[in-house]
Write a structure and sequence with these properties.
The protein is mainly alpha-helical. The protein is built from three helices and two strands; from the N terminus they run αββαα. A two-stranded antiparallel sheet has the order 1-2.
């Protein structure tokens, strides 16, 4: 793959620290079960310190807002309150 083992080990350590990966002794390394609050802080600091932070922040905002809207619409439709249905 063209990547040094030490680079992979360092990436695994960082991703484990952030909560993205979970390392279990004698079992291996696994992707975490879900989103954890510990993932937010490093992402925010990375965006703030990045030179292209405004564009990245707007992209993050768009992804977040789109996801929230999708979840809201799905929840409204599952409750059967008329959202998402065609009107006559």
């Amino acid at each position: 793959m063209g990547v040094a083992r030490s680079s992979v080990r360092e990436a695994i350590k960082i991703l484990t620290y952030l909560g993205v990966l979970e390392s279990k002794r004698s079992e291996g390394t696994f992707v975490g079960d879900g989103f954890k609050e510990s993932m937010i802080d490093p992402m925010i600091y990375g965006i703030i310190l990045n030179q292209d932070s405004f564009e990245n922040l707007m992209e993050l905002r768009e992804m977040t807002e789109t996801g929230i809207m999708r979840m809201t619409i799905q929840e409204a439709c599952s409750r059967g309150n008329g959202y998402g249905k065609k009107r006559a």
